[in-house]
Amino acid sequence: MASVAMANGVNANLVRRWVLELERGVPEEPAGDVAIASKAVPQLPSSFVQVPLPSAPAMPGIRIELQRGATKVVVTWPSAAVSECAAWMRELLR
């Protein structure tokens, strides 16, 4: 729980309390500043229109050019398989 709390900038005791409340099934009323902060969050107006965003552009592939003398080899590797490409390069350069 502590690592999850740290990763999200939340006190570990607060995360522990939330887990206990969830297990009990009865959430407690937040106390102090937390209650004030939760009430201060503005609500979206009813005229809010969700706009679809374009999908992220595809990442370009990895392009490797090797040349030894007159021989030239060009390898194109999908960028989603970076670790496999690195392993292949290590083997190739041994």
The gist of it:
The protein is α+β, with helices and mostly antiparallel strands and 94 residues long. The chain is built from four helices and two strands; from the N terminus they run αααββα.
Protein architecture, described:
There is one protein chain. The protein has 94 residues and is an alpha+beta fold. It has two domains: 2-39, no CATH class; 62-92, no CATH class. Helices cover 39% and strands 15% of the residues. The chain is built from four helices and two strands, in the order αααββα. The protein has helices at 2-7, 12-24, 33-39, 82-92, and strands at 62-68, 71-77. A two-stranded antiparallel sheet has the order 1-2. Strand 1 and strand 2 (71-77) form a beta hairpin. The radius of gyration is 26 Å and the shape is elongated.
Helix and strand topology:
Elements (H helix, E strand, L loop, with lengths): L1 H6 L4 H13 L8 H7 L22 E7 L2 E7 L4 H11 L2
Antiparallel strand pairs: 1-2
**Percent in strands:** 5-15%
Name the shape in a single word.
Answer: elongated
The averaged pLDDT comes out at 78
Helicity level: 25-40%
Major β-sheet profile: 2 strands, antiparallel
How many alpha or pi helices? 4
